[in-house]
Amino acid sequence: MQNVAPQAVARHVTQRPGAPLDVDALDRDLLRAYGDGSFDSVYYALLGTRDRRLLRITPVEKPCGPDYLRLGFNLESNLDQGSTYALRVGYHRTWINQLGGELLFTGQIGNTMGAGAKWCQPLDEAQRVFFGTSIAHRRNRADLYENDARIAQYGLQNTTTDLHSGLNIGTLGQVRLGWRDQRRTTTVETGTPMVQGERLDTRGWAVGIDFDQLDRLCIPTGGWSLNADILDGSNSGYTRVNLSS
C-alpha cells in the first residue's frame, strides 16, 4: 500500500493462524477495516496448496487522498431578522505517519468568521490510545431586539484550546481526558448597551465520552448513542455538563 500502513487492516482481523476459518467473523472484521474510510474495497481469497490453505487479504486504497479538500455553503433566512450565510473550507491530511496521525485545518467566512486546527495522533499500531490537540477561534455578531426592532449589536469572540489523550474502546466508541482553555469576549458594537460587554475565561479538566451503536448514520432505526462533555472549570467558578443520546 502506498499511503496506508498495513496494520490499518491487520488491527481489525481476529482470525488466528492455524485456527479454523470463521467466515462470518472475517466478513465483520473486513467491514470494519473498510469503514475506516481509507479503502475502496477490502476482500479476501483462499489459496490452496498441497498441505495447507492460505488466507490472502487484499485492501485497495482509495485513488484520492491522503489529502482531502472540502467546501460547504450554508444560507438561512428569517423574515423578521434577515438572512445569514457561511462559506466553509476544510483541509484534511490523513496518514501523516505510519501510526495514522491526522491533521485538519478549517476556515469559515460569513456572518460567523472562524478558523481552527486539529491534530490527532494514535500512539500504538492498533490505534487504541491516542493523543490530540486543537485550537479554534470564532467571531460572530448577536443582535438584541425590542418589539421586533434591533436596538443593539454585540460582537462575540470565542477561542478554545484543547489538549487531551484518549482510549478507543473497540467498536463501542472512545473516552477522552484533557485540559481545556476557553476565552470569551463580548463587546458592544452598535446601539444601546443594554448588556455591558465582558470577558469570561474558563479553564480546567475536560472529560469527553462518545459511544455510538446506531445502525445507520442518517435516520437510524435501531441501536443507541451517548455523548457527554464535562468541563470542570471550578477554578474559574464555572462547570458545564452536556449530555445527549
Please sum up the structure shown:
The protein is mainly beta and 245 residues long.
Account of the 3D structure:
This protein is mainly beta and 245 residues long. The chain has two domains: 55 residues, membrane protein fhac (Ubiquitin-like (UB roll), Roll), CATH 3.10.20; 178 residues, membrane protein fhac: a member of the omp85/tpsb transporter family (Porin, Beta Barrel). It is 7% helix and 62% strand. The protein is built from two helices and twelve strands, in the order H-H-E-E-E-E-E-E-E-E-E-E-E-E. It has a ten-stranded antiparallel sheet with strand order 3-4-5-6-7-8-9-10-11-12, with no helix packed on it. A two-stranded antiparallel ribbon has the order 1-2. A hairpin with a 4-residue loop joins strand 1 and strand 2. The longest helix has 13 residues. The model has no long low-confidence stretch (mean pLDDT 87).
Rounded to the nearest angstrom, the distance between the terminal CA atoms is 38 Å
Q: In the CATH hierarchy, what is the class of the largest domain?
A: Mainly Beta
Tell me the Rg in angstroms. Answer: 24 Å
CATH topology (level 3) name of the largest domain: Porin
Write down the oligomeric state.
Answer: single chain
Classify the helix fraction into a percent range: under 10%
Main structural class: mainly beta
Shape: elongated
Order of the strands making up the biggest sheet: 3-4-5-6-7-8-9-10-11-12
Model regions low in confidence, pLDDT < 50 over at least 5 residues: none
The CATH architecture term of the largest domain is Beta Barrel
For the largest beta-sheet, the strand count, sense and barrel status come to: 10 strands, antiparallel
Question: What is the average of the pLDDT values?
Answer: 87
